Amino acid sequence: MRIIAGTHKGRVLKPLKGNNIRPTSDRVREAYFNIIGQYFEGATILDLYCGSGAIGLEFLSRGAERCIFVDISQNSINLAKENARQMDMLNRSSFYTMSASDFLKNIRDYIFDFIFIDPPYKENISKSILALIGPDILKENGILTVEHSKRMEYPDTIGRLYLIRNRKFGDTILSFYSLDFVRYKL
């Protein structure tokens, strides 16, 4: 895994180890940023189920001001911190070892421009997690993206979120949501 663009382009990230680990591939990450944009000056990012932190660190490399990394696994948080440290991005990063739902229920300090959610493919988070996200967590013009298996269905609307686009990459689908259905044409 490597940083694809920005100030840290080409820098290699340490991956998570284990048979049940499925990091977002470079191909999917590159396509993701081609869809949502290339640079994110001043943006606040949430990397939920952060794993190695690759998505959040890619945002920081592309100019995001701050990234919040959340994972229930202490090993994942330790690795994301180590990757942020080696990229000299700790001063723009915050790390939380907790479940996604606990974080979203208790967040008070941030409203995000972009949220990237990459749960284990066996976990269906559509109702339990997406329903927690509204204008107090995602900015009105923000984009939330869920990476999931093609075997997992995600709703067109849930809570305050509207599905604005799906993109398929082999077994992986990126589902893009917004609080405002009309505004976005990704």
Topology readout:
Blueprint: H1 26-36, E1 44-48, H2 54-61, E2 66-71, H3 74-86, E3 93-97, H4 100-106, E4 112-117, E5 138-149, E6 157-158, E7 161-169, E8 172-178
Parallel strand pairs: 1-2, 1-4, 2-3, 4-5
Antiparallel strand pairs: 5-8, 6-7, 7-8
Give your account of this protein's structure.
This protein has 186 residues and is α/β, with parallel strands linked by helices. The longest helix has 13 residues, at 74-86. The two termini are 26 Å apart. The chain contains four helices and eight strands. An eight-stranded mixed β-sheet has the order 3-2-1-4-5-8-7-6, with helices on one face. It has a single domain (26-178), classed as Rossmann fold (3-Layer(aba) Sandwich). The protein has helices at residues 26-36, 54-61, 74-86, 100-106, and strands at 44-48, 66-71, 93-97, 112-117, 138-149, 157-158, 161-169, 172-178. The mean pLDDT is 89.
Question: TL;DR?
Answer:
The chain is of the alpha/beta class and 186 residues long. It has a single domain, classed as Rossmann fold.
